[in-house]
User: Fold this.
Amino acid sequence: MIGSADAGSLDMTIASALQVNGRATWGAIARALDLPERTVARRGQRLIDEGLVRVSTYLDTTIVGHAHPVVVEIHTAPGRAVQVGQILSERADASSVSVIEGSGDLTCMILPRTLEDRARLLLDEIPSIDDVVSVQASTVLRYFRSGYDWVARELPPEPTAALVQDMIRPAEDAVPAEHLELEPEDEALVAELAADGRAAVAQLARSVGLSTPTVRRRLDSLFAAGALHVRTEVAPALHGLGLEALIWLRVRPDRIDDVGRTLGRHPAVRFCVALTGRSQIMIDCLLLDEAALYAFVTEDIAGLGVESVDRTGVVLFPLRRGPLLVAPTAVEPVAD
Assistant:
């Protein structure tokens, strides 16, 4: 039982419930949290309307599309990082775009479909953007945490179990699909859910011109195969997380897997990958403030036995997260 709470705490609780299951109905969330449905629906919808919570879906490109993900670090002319970042954010294959501290620095995750696309991206398309000074790329070798499964604030076990009981997920003993080819109807459904991950099945059916049972069957298949995941982005400040940082680590080859898996389970780490280049692991973390970042680096990371912290960059503006274009948002308590 969650019970009554002050306005800020209630908003955080509802946001956490949406991170557990972004497609749960307001009634299901209210029952799981033991709160009035009217209150949950009003406050939850307002969080979405104000852009503090955004529900979409995440397409696993290791199963669908054979993407070749790359982390791209871009140095721009002074004062042009945001403008260049906005251009990159509009790419269909962009997964994450961040402006980080420095004199015109951007870090992006881009998912080119083919090796030829990757070469064209790095050798032609990005360098040809006005005000791009230099480009450095690293190929992603393995995901330890990919972002969609990160929750800012854990709910107690009982409401969490209630929220996930109706979710379609791959069986624990299922063999992951090597590759899925999406039908045009699937592509249309994925596009609709990227824009609104809470869209009801009947609404999706009307939008793509299919029957409701057909849409439900196609979605169940994609979720069960692990190709499609619900993704809920929450403005970090809603949970009091005032600082986002990207950290590159140098790790001995025999320690990469252990370090990556450990960091992938850390509550502050939203994203963690192994990659090529001079750094072997990159993480995206969300923390309370600079003091918390200092403790995370000097205690949590240092305790893993990494060779060195190659670079740390505080995120100034997140411009894209998954299929969502985002902008800095000031958080104010929602009036009850």
Notes: Confidence is low (pLDDT under 50) at residues 328-336. Residues 55 and 232 are 4 Å apart (CA to CA).
